[in-house]
Specification:
The protein is α+β, with helices and mostly antiparallel strands. Helix content is about 30%, strand content about 25%. The chain folds into 2 domains: about 270 residues, no CATH class; about 120 residues, ACT domain (Alpha-Beta Plaits, 2-Layer Sandwich).
Amino acid sequence: MSKKIAIGGGQGFWGDSPDAAIHMIENADIQYMGLDYLAELTLSIMARQKIKDPSKGFAPDFVTRILKNAGRTAYEKNIRMITDAGGMNVDGCVDAIKNWAKEEGLEGYKIGYVTGDDIKDKIPELIKNGWDFPSMDTVGSNDNSVTFKDIQDKIYNCNAYIGHEAIRDTIANGADVVVTGRAADSALFLAPLAHEFGWKNDDWDNLAKGIMAGHLLECGGQGAGGNFMYDWRGVPDMEHLGFPIAELTENTFEITKAPNCGGLISEQSVKEQFLYEVLDPANYLTPDVNVDISKATVSQVGDNRVRIGEIRGKEKPDTIKLCVGYHKGWKTVSMLSFAWPDAYEKAKYCSEIIMKKMKERGMKADDVHISFIGLDSLHLGVADKSPETIARLNECVMRIAVFSEDKNECAKIIPEISPLQLNGPQGASFFGGRAHVQEVMALYPTVVPRDVLDVRSHIITV
């Protein structure tokens, strides 16, 4: 009988529900679980937290919501967990796990962790050596509005998307849990598969298969009927949504889910996640391999079971994606709601009053965005704004967002919103409370040479 490894996707982002992960640990036959907490700007948020409090900067949810509820069960069932919850403070996350393990009396519990994704201190050297940090947002376009030089003195974090190798090393050394910072999402899942099947670091086809297993799991519920465009009404028991599980042998690759939970694993749900964030299906670049899914097959082979085939891999790229978070400026968002009749007409008139007042007060905003929730806030210029649609609106919320590099300019609009409840057209209602000036953090995606990284694995025993 061929060896089979099952790995579950336990989280899709920082703040995701722990319910599916806990259910999976308690009810599914899995050997590993990957838990992804990091979106692109999450690291900037964590970096700011760490500046204010050095003990923060990681995702405490992993300990407080996953380990405290199901960590002992996972340990007793020998389910090993790999997570990027370390964020900007891997050491802090490791300490929190260590304290939990001691409280549980888990003597001999092994914590693996990986460092080296944070390369902020290497930036001056790279600049000195002539690296120009090309923006991935402007490749193929004429938009050169923001360069790395523009943001150098505003940077919060510079984190490289590391691959699976160091994670794999900690697993090989017996880690019960592995913590990373900014690893590539799919690397969390590739590492245990590569370890179990003994894939070499240039076995491109198998590495690509492992990456796509991770890709189908990394977004949690989105891979099992959550956020499902094709037929969201047909997803059963969504209040108990299960998350996907990948089952692999040397020759097969299938996606399923835990028993006795909601959600849906179908050809259509898997295809939606399969293509998620894949720009070029023939060249899906990751730190570990260049994946080609242009000829991949996705087929239903059972109830809540889909088989994946024909995934190919090519040599990994010479550069690594770098996530640079920086301070861009300030914003304030204000809202007023209006009810039928003439909801949109009244909301629009209020926005015009406010803009006239701002002009009189000399507000120098860098950008002002006005939209109407219920009409065009999501669809913008392609929204249906025909007279018939506008006349049918039961309600409409006017939303004004102001951006400026000067915090004081953003604040000027705040005291002008509330008075319009009595000083404007009939029916205005203050919506969302009094606005506050908020910092705007932005992302500068770029690449760096692979050889600049110093990625290391570590392991401690409780």
